[in-house]
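We modelled the chain as a single entity of 109 amino acids. Its sequence is:
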Amino acid sequence: MAANDSGGSVLAGFLLGTIVGVAIGLLTAPKPGRETREDLARWADSAREKARERLGDLQERAERVRHVAAEKGEKVKELAGEAGQKVRHAVSAVRERLTAPREEGSADA
């Protein structure tokens, strides 16, 4: 879970830093309105593309984690089934040992 929180923090920090940088750039280097709009459009396109890339990376990572979790879940289910079978055999063996002397004792009487 910590890895997911870190990824969100990095993305939030990146976006905040980018917004602050653009604002400072606009305030310190004024340009004609059309140039400013073009710069903002380029910045928005760049930010959108970076966000898509990051989302794609996160989706790939989530899919890998889901796949590994499913595999581990199947393995746990298999091991639990095997353990249950061993317990059933052990209980059956104990029952046989406990009932065998009674049967021998009643046959002797």
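As a brief sanity check on the tokenised model: Residues 2-108 form one domain. The two ends are 68 Å apart (CA to CA).
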